Amino acid sequence: MAKLGSIGRRACSGLVRKKNETMSLIITTTIGVAVGFLIGISFPTLNPTKLRFPSSNISCIEDRNTGLMLLNHALTSRNHNGNNSKDFNDTLKIYVPTKPRGVERLPPGIIVSESDFYLRRLWGNPDEDLTIKQKYLVAFTVGYDQKKMIDAAVKKFSENFTILLFHYDGRTSEWDEFEWSKRAIHVSARKQTKWWYAKRFLHPDIVAPYDYIFIWDEDLGVEHFNAEEYIKLVKKHGLEISQPGLLQNTGFITWQMARRREDSEVHKETEERPGQCPDPHLPPCAAFVEIMAPVFSRDAWRCVWHMIQNDLVHGWGIDFALRKCLEPAHEKIGVVDSQWIVHQVVPSLGNQGQAANGKPPWQGVRERCRKEWWMFQKRMADAEIAYCKAMGIPPPNMIAFRQ
Ligand SMILES: *[C@@H]1O[C@H](CO)[C@@H](O)[C@H](O)[C@H]1NC(C)=O
Ligand SMILES: *[C@@H]1O[C@H](CO)[C@@H](O)[C@H](O)[C@H]1NC(C)=O
Ligand SMILES: *[C@@H]1O[C@H](CO)[C@@H](O)[C@H](O)[C@H]1NC(C)=O
Ligand SMILES: *[C@@H]1O[C@H](CO)[C@@H](O)[C@H](O)[C@H]1NC(C)=O
Fold it and tell me: How remote is the CA of residue 133 from the centroid of ligand 4, in Å?
């Protein structure tokens, strides 16, 4: 309270200063806000008092399947027989102060920490700008060559969706041949990947008004898909991270989990080849969707956005780690079978690599994907080990990486 008072006084005293000082106060504040916003984005502050472990036998264990150490899982298993569920929930959370850092000079009432993609007009009353506040967002990463597929896909999303196109080929105005293009947001940056755009343009505070966020590839056949129906099912089955079931029309092999089933609305687990899933509640048999057509709830996206690494642009490995954002993950991640899509497997961005040493462009891209996958796994494991050590929990004695 005392702190609030002094902030309030400082903000108010600025108003009666001489003009010059007021100006410099405004400038400092503006810079403060910008810096604070950036810091807030990059370093959510840990509040050590909230990060306490109940004194019991938690240990960090290794995930036999992925080689990732599984802090969440250790906590979950304990949850089943233990009595401290509330404590366990607390330990899984990292708290961010409600007032962003860097805006201490501003009175709380003026702070707007969230935004949206709603298009406004340049005249009239701001209150009356919006005829509809869309509750859902769909973002496609596109090249103009795939315009037919994207046109068909966008038409499956009602007026309740904000449409966002990330253009990796620099062609944006051509899309105006489609009526819907005028209400879409177009972001253009050459030869970047879906996760590169998502990290930069879908910050959780920017997409805060949207209940669900679709982050989709461009080569998906949507004939049997309806977005409003899809959302009804996702709500009904409590899915925080999901994807539509996938029908493969090429020889390209996918995980069983993503495959569309004909006999169900939704599935949350599956069976793989023998030996693939020592734990049926872990990927690739559960708690897992592929990254070509994921759908996130607002809360799930807030977590996943923070997990996306700035430099690892292909997103490989994130699919296996999504479950770290949810608890219990095998109940909140699933595949919607009755609204399904077809993966067309069109070579697109992969062809925008660079030919080198006699190798075709796509090969360099593929190698980078694999490298990133390994780097992501290592970073996750290192972070969890460091966290365990900091919390005084015995770290695992062996971590093996699957290449
Ligand atoms: C911790 O584990 C040890 C050995 O596994 C067991 O003897 C002990 O009772 C456990 N303590 C608690 C609090 O569960
Ligand atoms: C949980 O703890 C309460 C008291 O704290 C106890 O009465 C209850 O039996 C415990 N439940 C289990 C499942 O151990
Ligand atoms: C843990 O928190 C989640 C949501 O934050 C809630 O749905 C769940 O019921 C909680 N679990 C327990 C055991 O309190
Ligand atoms: C859009 O959302 C509103 C409110 O939820 C709903 O009544 C309407 O049916 C939705 N539009 C479509 C095309 O489903």
Answer: 11
Q: Residue 83: CB within 6 Å of ligand 1? A: no
A 10 A CB-CB count for 294 gives: 25
161-167 and 136-142 as β-strands: parallel, antiparallel, unpaired? parallel
Task: Please write the tens of the pLDDT for every residue from 141-169.
Answer: 999 999 999 999 999 999 999 999 999 99
What is the length of the chain?
403
Q: Where are the domains of the chain?
A: 126-352
Q: Are 163 and 138 in contact (CB under 8 A)?
A: yes
pTM: 0.71
Q: Is the CB of 57 under 6 A from ligand 1?
A: yes
CB of 86 sitting under 6 A from ligand 3 = yes
Q: Which CATH architecture has domain 126-352?
A: Alpha-Beta Complex (3.90)
